[in-house]
Amino acid sequence: MNDYPSPPKKIPTGNTLRALGFALLAKKEYSKTDLKQKLLAYGAAFDEVETLVEELAQQNYQSDERMAGMLLRSQIRQGRGPARIKQALKKHDIDLDLAQQEYDEVDWFEQALNLKIKKFGAEVITDPKQKAKQIRFLQYRGFSMDIIMKVVNYKGEEDFY
């Protein structure tokens, strides 16, 4: 261990802060709130970060709407249901209205059914313990009880649409 003090970290301002914002957005999509937190973690001034993030949003480099759509599609690919998706949007401080059209177009029954078949197979289980296991699995994934019960009891010939 050396006895020399570490050099003070340079706090980003002006063009350095702008370059940092662009670098962050080049790697991944961020919500306004997430981008502000990232930039503030570097020690930048709050007012300067606020101004920069608003400017990046106006120039469409940062978009909460794009972030909402990306997050929705990502969560669906991961097998998450409506409740878990709303929770993820809330975590990133994004309003569901920004992805409402895509959200409304999703067939949640089909998503839950595909997830159930992938994990447990297509047959209808009569054993209460196994049925409870399937129900808990789909609840954890964020699906509502009415969809879960339709999926767990789905025999293939009924039409639930």
UniProtKB/TrEMBL annotation:
<dbReference type="GO" id="GO:0005737">
    <property type="term" value="C:cytoplasm"/>
</dbReference>
<protein>
    <recommendedName>
        <fullName>Regulatory protein RecX</fullName>
    </recommendedName>
</protein>
<dbReference type="GO" id="GO:0006282">
    <property type="term" value="P:regulation of DNA repair"/>
</dbReference>
<dbReference type="Pfam" id="PF21981">
    <property type="entry name" value="RecX_HTH3"/>
</dbReference>
<feature type="domain" description="RecX second three-helical">
    <location>
        <begin position="63"/>
        <end position="101"/>
    </location>
</feature>
<comment type="similarity">
    <text>Belongs to the RecX family.</text>
</comment>
<dbReference type="InterPro" id="IPR036388">
    <property type="entry name" value="WH-like_DNA-bd_sf"/>
</dbReference>
<feature type="domain" description="RecX third three-helical">
    <location>
        <begin position="105"/>
        <end position="152"/>
    </location>
</feature>
<comment type="function">
    <text>Modulates RecA activity.</text>
</comment>
<dbReference type="InterPro" id="IPR003783">
    <property type="entry name" value="Regulatory_RecX"/>
</dbReference>
<keyword id="KW-0963">Cytoplasm</keyword>
<dbReference type="InterPro" id="IPR053924">
    <property type="entry name" value="RecX_HTH_2nd"/>
</dbReference>
<dbReference type="InterPro" id="IPR053925">
    <property type="entry name" value="RecX_HTH_3rd"/>
</dbReference>
<dbReference type="Pfam" id="PF02631">
    <property type="entry name" value="RecX_HTH2"/>
</dbReference>
